[in-house]
Amino acid sequence: MRSIQFKKKLATCATFFATVAAVMATASPAHAAEYRVTDNCDVPWITCSYGDLWLFYNSKDIAIQDGYIKSAFTTFYSNVSDHWGTSQYQGSSLTTYRYVFGNGGNGNGQYMKNNAASVQNCAPADNYRVYYNSGYGGTSQYFAKNSPYGDCNITNLISALKNNNASSHFA
Questions:
Q1: 76 near 55, Cβ under 8 Å?
Q2: What predicted TM-score, i.e. pTM, was given to this entire model?
Q3: Best label site of 17, 63, 102, 121, fewest CB within 10 Å?
Q4: Contact 48, 77 (CB under 8 A)
Q5: What are the residue ranges in the chain where pLDDT is below 70?
């Protein structure tokens, strides 16, 4: 009688381990999460304390009409080495934030890298440069800080950078 109970327990254990092995064999690796943001301050590992650079999907004549913003835009409050986005491992999961144009208007939801046509620097104390390459390389354009009267002048990107913007940095 004992040998029958032992064989049943052994069979039950074997079934249990086979089930666990099957689940482990079909388990997928850690998942990657991807989010779309219109402001680099929405990325948890970025500390924003200064700056205020706006990049618009459209040229300045279309982006702002009669004092109203008609174009989608992205805002940056610090250096951005790649306008495509930023990634970081959190434990074994990769989390990625992609920069997109938002806030309604033309270009809403489009990826921001290599799609901007105009820039507005509203930072009270910081000048910016927008670069052709990621990592602050290649052709660049300088944008002076906000005027003392609070005017945030919008400027078209030069032809070498229009729809070819890959990074931005304090100048």
A1: yes
A2: 0.79
A3: 17
A4: yes
A5: 1-30
